[in-house]
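Running this now, will post back.
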Amino acid sequence: MKPLALSMTCLRKCIADSAVPLGAMWFYQDDTYDMTLLRASAHGGCLSRFTVQVVSGHNFAIVDLLRTVCEDDSYQPLSRLSGTDLQVVLNFVIGVCEDTDTVTGALLHGLSFLGFVAGFVRDVKALSLSPALQPDTPSSVGDGGGGGLQGVSPSLLPMQLPHYYAHAGAGGRLSGTPGRSGGGGAGHPPSRMTREARLALARTLEPMTDLWQRLISVGMHVIVLQDRAMSASCAVVYPIMEAYPPFWQRFVDGFVPTYPEAKQQRVREALSTLFNDSESSERFFSEVFTLRQTLRNL
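Update: finished.
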């Protein structure tokens, strides 16, 4: 496990420091980065939560790698995961964030990745309402089709170049390739490659009907019960609450009964106030402190 953690740390540092020549690799159809990331995800998914908790720092390496590839727009290989394999990764990160003994650094990295996933709620909603965006075959929504890792040893994964790595631009770098010097950053519209990767991930996430409520629960658990990672938790909860309020209502219906009956009405009113007064993510962030104080004064 320690060599695996060190490998993930090395890969993360290479991505964060722009040491991986992604443009050149994709120009020459070298998918070493893609398969390295996918194999790391497959190995990480094979580990139990107990095993990871015993070996200090291993869960930190996994969630830190996932955070880095998302923040640096290097997440396109994740769109090749099947629904089952992506669910394994999500379950692991959610488990890390739900554990109150998780160190703050790992919690922040895990919530950052979950916040990235929460940002897909609008894509999934649009996909559900737009038949034209539906995949042509059942396997393309990640149901264990040919693109997944389920039942395959990480060392035997097929070496196939993703369809969105197509043409190189000037200088040998693909237009919009991941990394800090690629397109898709601040002030730049997302490239076709990025749009296709987001659509592929949205299709994989769409069948996971309980995912959004789980993400809200994870974020609100940290907000209500812990004195840390407030901003990262809000970034997980607010996009889902704003995009599809019924998910928030389902969370409220499940959260309120966890309090004694005499306090349930006040808890429901506090959560309703949070929802009604949160016109923006900034306002939501400020209102959660009021919610925390109200719940602690019950």
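The first helix runs from residue 2 to 16. More later if anyone needs it.
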